[in-house]
């Protein structure tokens, strides 16, 4: 059986995601599509608008056959670590291909970029360090390093100023680092740009614009044309029962988490560095809204995303000491499957290099405990009258 892997967040699952999933299956002639999906907190340092089980149902309805959770330690990390965790899981599941969306639309530029960096590693790393010393944010420092080695070359290189290209490059790099036999494939992104905030005239909108419409209008009704029918129904069901999750809803919990600690204690939290803990402490005392807090702490040194990632770690209590224990994925957490996915799992189960977890009580692991903890904190901020905690223990894998 041919398995093709994809790395997703589905926040929420929309028509562009459906196109990518269908093309991945068609172009690789796959029998099984395996989606490694972030849990309840995402790579941009924000909560998913609906929980991971609702998004799992969206994925299975859209054509995925297996949905595996990307552990919190990787799902909320910088792009290289995010990609490392996802690619290692897809490789452990014996995928023949991994497929990602990109602005580039061709694998050759990514391969060329990897080759260039490997031959100019010293200059590349030196340029990054110099940019960091100048107070430039990490993503822009990476871009500076890339520009330092690419300005004199005539070969076709990936444009690493584009968000999907950046992740695609790191997927390729992660696969290369572990000498994976998976074949990379990229599908050109269609429709609006990744960060476009406005809904377009056609049926393919960015997840950013869909979320902005939902929060601006306080309703999901306007986004229906941009989502497959099942995804939209699941989105509406969640809205009716719980309301959508957001940083605004979680800010009281975040504010309490910051004020409970002395600034010095905040330095124990993952990613906190260079005195930003004092800015967080002051802003938490003074600001009553999340937007006000972010405006008070933003700076040229840190991107909005990197600040949000720090805040997610404060909220969940994810400490540097815990992160040091989690260097690689140590289990395969099954969130959902189709009959095809179940058949594929049966065919490889005895060869899996990592334990397959369908019941979280069956494994004690610091990474899995972090997933369980982050789910409870996510659900604690839900605005429904009685959010249910302990769902990781209560919810079996979804079978369609």
From TrEMBL:
SUPFAM superfamilies in the cross-refs: Nucleotidylyl transferase
A GO molecular function assigned to this protein is: ligase activity, forming carbon-nitrogen bonds
EC assignment: the record states 6.3.4.-
Q: What is any one GO biological process for this UniProt entry?
A: tRNA modification
Say which enzyme class the record assigns: ligase
Organism domain of life: Bacteria
Q: Where do the TM regions start and end?
A: none
Concerning Pfam families, the annotation shows: HIGH_NTase1
InterPro entries documented for this protein: Rossmann-like_a/b/a_fold (IPR014729), tRNA(Met)_cyd_acetate_ligase (IPR008513)
**UniProt keyword annotations, A-Z:** ATP-binding, Cytoplasm, Ligase, Nucleotide-binding, RNA-binding, Transferase, tRNA processing, tRNA-binding
Principal subcellular localization: cytoplasm
Asked whether the keyword Nuclease is assigned, the reply is no
Q: Where in the cell is it found?
A: Cytoplasm
* Catalytic activity, as annotated: cytidine(34) in elongator tRNA(Met) + acetate + ATP = N(4)-acetylcytidine(34) in elongator tRNA(Met) + AMP + diphosphate
Q: What does this protein do?
A: Catalyzes the formation of N(4)-acetylcytidine (ac(4)C) at the wobble position of elongator tRNA(Met), using acetate and ATP as substrates. First activates an acetate ion to form acetyladenylate (Ac-AMP) and then transfers the acetyl group to tRNA to form ac(4)C34.
Q: Of which family is this protein a member? A: Belongs to the TmcAL family.
Which PANTHER family does the protein's record reference? TRNA(MET) CYTIDINE ACETATE LIGASE (PTHR37825)
**Which protein are we looking at?**
tRNA(Met) cytidine acetate ligase
């Amino acid at each position: 059986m041919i398995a093709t892997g994809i790395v997703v967040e589905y926040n929420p699952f929309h028509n562009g995601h459906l196109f990518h999933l269908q093309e991945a299956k068609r172009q690789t002639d796959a029998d099984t599509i395996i989606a490694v999906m972030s849990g309840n907190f995402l790579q941009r340092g924000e909560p998913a608008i609906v929980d991971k089980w609702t998004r799992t149902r969206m994925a299975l309805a859209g054509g995925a056959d297996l949905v595996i959770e990307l552990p919190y330690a990787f799902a909320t990390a910088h792009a290289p670590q995010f990609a490392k965790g996802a690619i290692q899981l897809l490789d452990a599941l014996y995928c023949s291909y991994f497929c990602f969306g990109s602005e580039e639309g061709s694998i050759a530029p990514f391969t060329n970029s990897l080759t260039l960096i490997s031959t100019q590693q010293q200059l590349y790393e030196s340029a990054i360090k110099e940019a960091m010393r100048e107070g430039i944010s990490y993503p822009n420092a990476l871009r500076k390093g890339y520009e330092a080695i690419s300005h004199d070359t005539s070969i076709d290189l990936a444009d690493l100023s584009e968000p999907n290209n950046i992740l695609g490059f790191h997927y390729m790099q992660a696969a290369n680092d572990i000498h994976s036999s998976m074949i990379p494939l990229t599908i050109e992104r269609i429709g609006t740009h990744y960060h476009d905030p406005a809904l377009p005239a056609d049926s393919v909108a960015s997840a950013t614009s869909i979320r902005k419409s939902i929060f601006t209008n306080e309703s999901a009704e306007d986004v229906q044309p941009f989502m497959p029918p099942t995804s939209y129904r699941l989105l509406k069901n969640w809205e009716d029962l719980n309301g959508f999750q957001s940083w605004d809803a979680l800010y009281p919990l975040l504010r309490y988490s910051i004020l409970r600690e002395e600034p010095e204690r905040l330095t124990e939290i993952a990613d906190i560095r260079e005195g930003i803990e004092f800015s967080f402490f002051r802003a938490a005392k003074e600001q009553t809204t999340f937007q006000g807090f972010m405006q008070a702490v933003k700076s040229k040194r840190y991107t909005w995303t990197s600040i949000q990632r720090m805040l997610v770690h404060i909220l969940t209590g994810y400490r540097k000491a815990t992160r040091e224990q989690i260097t690689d994925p140590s289990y395969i957490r099954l969130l959902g499957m189709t009959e095809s996915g179940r058949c594929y799992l049966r065919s490889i189960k005895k060869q899996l290099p990592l334990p397959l977890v369908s019941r979280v009580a069956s494994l004690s692991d610091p990474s899995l405990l972090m997933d369980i903890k982050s789910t409870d904190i996510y659900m604690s901020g839900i605005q429904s009258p009685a959010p249910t905690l302990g769902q990781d223990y209560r919810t079996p894998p979804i079978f369609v």
